[in-house]
Structure formats: C-alpha cells, structure tokens
Design a protein that fits this description.
Layout: H1 2-19, E1 22-23, H2 24-31, H3 44-58, E2 62-64, E3 69-72, H4 75-79, H5 83-99, H6 115-128, E4 130-136, E5 145-157, E6 160-166, E7 170-174, E8 178-187, H7 196-199, E9 215-222, H8 223-231, E10 239-243, E11 247-254, H9 258-265, E12 271-275, H10 277-295
Antiparallel strand pairs: 1-3, 2-3, 4-5, 4-8, 5-6, 6-7, 9-11, 9-12, 10-11
Helix pairs in contact: 1-3, 1-5
Length: 301
C-alpha cells in the first residue's frame, strides 16, 4: 500500500510538471490511461490528500489558480536538481514504459533492488520524525543485530540505497542488508545544524571518515577518457587544469577515501594519480598487487 501511494505521488508530480498547468479533469483523463487507475478516476478528496502528502514528503507545492488549473509553485527548485529532479526523471521514464507496453523489451535500465521494500517506510519515518527498529546484517559481522535508528537522510550510490542514521553514533546502512524494519512511535528531531549535503560534500560515494581532512588530489587522464570526465565529473570540485592532445589533468578538493580510490582504479591505465604522494603510493600498491595476481597461472578447478 505504501509503495502504491509513493508511485501515485510521483505520477501526479510528473504529470503536472510536464503539463506546466493542467485542470483536474485533464489529470483524471491522463490517470485513467495508466495501469494504476484500474479504470477508476481519482476522487477530489483523494487528489487533495495527495497534494498535501507531496508537500510534506518532497517539499513540492501544487497550487491552484483562479481558473482551477494546477501547477507546481516551486518549479525552479525542481529544475535546479536534487531529489525533486531525481523523482521527476525516474518516474517519467517508468511512466512512459508502463504506457508503452510494446517498447518494454527495448528499454533496458539498471535495477536498484534494495529500494523496493524499505525505502518508503524509511522516508515516511523521516517525514514523521520517528525512529526505526532495524534488524541489520553487516557484511563484516557474523550475526545480525536489531537496534533503534533515527533516520537522518537517504542516498543512492552505484545501484544501492543507503540510509544514514543515528543509533549509538551516525552510521551508514545499506538497504539490501536490512533484514527487517518497523516504524516506532518514538520521536526524534534532526539536529538543526545538520546538513545532509554538507555531510558528504567532500566525499565520493558513501564513505565519510571524520578523521580524514579534505585535500587536493591531482590526476592525469587519457585524452579520450577525459571527454567522459568533462560530461560527468567525479566530484563537484573537479577542475580541468591542463589539456593537450594526449591527456588532461584534473584537480579535486576531496577526501581520498576507499570509494574514490576504487573509482580511479576502475579506469585502469587511462587514469594516473599525480598527487598527493601518499595516495599515489596507495594506488601503486593496489596496481602492484593486481600485477602479482595476474602474473600467476590462472586458477583451474
């Protein structure tokens, strides 16, 4: 039921966003063409309940003008990116696929299975300011554990959803490692000074080590690969400080943690770390270990 409501909310936002301004009657005509409607129109009361829920959950305000047409008041916030833009883009594709059954086999996308079961109750707990009772089995522990978590925010990274929350301290939990989840009636307040964007601002990925300081990292990238770096920067601090026909040099101000190291390694010989020296040595050790591994005869059963 919760997942169904979530889908309806995003459908409604997407429909109004694309139309710019639209009447309730036109919304219902579009709604009746979807599988979600099951042939039934949206009652006026249900529509207004959805409007209120969308405002509470996503901060998206659907307003009505003097001609009884609906539009999104803070449309510039959506255009500027963030979670609102993600919601619109994600559902716009899903909605198009659902309305075009013959094209389903010709549209391939990455699946994020961890978001299906637990994302909605986590977002609802964030909205209502209540804690979660979570049963979690970490990859690094033999047994699962059950504990209470105050959900601060959620983040998606490389096909996995994560909830960042406080139990004994602020931690990151992968949704695909959650074994059971229940909403409690225990209230919590997100600290007023806490900023989710700032928490990961100096990081690539999902790891943030408070003991590591941000620093300048310089890498050299093959000219062909550099084209992809320009279109999709690895981090908001990325700057191209040198370019020629053979390579480009990019600079970052970042915490060079595990996720960032793995990303650079994934580009193989197309990327070389120039500085800092300790990070270059770390990459060099990883490359040496790989070279040693591949110098052996391949394992055979």
């Amino acid at each position: 039921m919760a997942q169904t409501l979530f889908n309806r909310y995003i459908w409604l936002v997407d429909t109004i966003y694309r139309a710019k301004t639209i009447s309730f009657e036109e919304i219902n005509r579009k709604w009746l063409r979807t599988n979600m409607s099951e042939g039934n129109p949206i009652p006026k009361r249900t529509f207004h309940n959805h409007r209120n829920a969308i405002d509470e959950l996503f901060g998206i305000k659907i307003t009505c003008d003097s001609t009884y047409h609906y539009s999104i008041e803070n449309i510039d916030d959506i255009k500027n990116g963030g979670v609102r833009q993600w919601l619109i883009n994600t559902f716009a594709v899903n909605n198009l696929i659902n309305e075009s059954h013959k094209l389903k086999e010709r549209i391939l996308f990455e699946e994020i299975p961890s978001g299906q079961r637990f994302l909605t109750p986590i977002i609802e707990a964030m909205r209502d300011g209540v804690t979660l009772q979570m049963t979690y089995h970490s990859f690094w522990k033999e047994n699962q554990a059950t504990f209470e978590v105050a959900p601060y925010f959620v983040k998606v990274f490389k096909q996995r959803w994560y909830v960042i929350g406080e139990s004994d301290c602020l931690k990151v939990y992968a949704l695909d490692r959650i074994k059971a989840l229940e909403t409690t009636s225990i209230p919590f307040e997100l600290p007023k000074e806490f900023d989710p964007q700032a928490y990961f601002y100096s990081c690539y990925g999902i790891i943030n080590d408070e003991t590591i300081k941000s620093q300048t990292v310089v890498i050299k990238v093959d000219a062909d690969q550099a084209k992809y770096f320009r279109v999709l920067p690895l981090h908001s601090s990325q700057q191209e400080i040198e370019e020629n026909e053979d390579y480009s040099v990019f600079q970052y101000y970042i915490k060079p943690l595990f996720d960032f190291r793995q990303e650079l390694l994934s580009h193989g010989e197309d990327v070389e770390v120039i500085s800092p020296d300790w990070f270059r040595d770390e990459i060099k050790s990883s490359v040496a270990a790989m070279q040693k591994l591949y110098s052996k005869k391949p394992f055979k059963k």
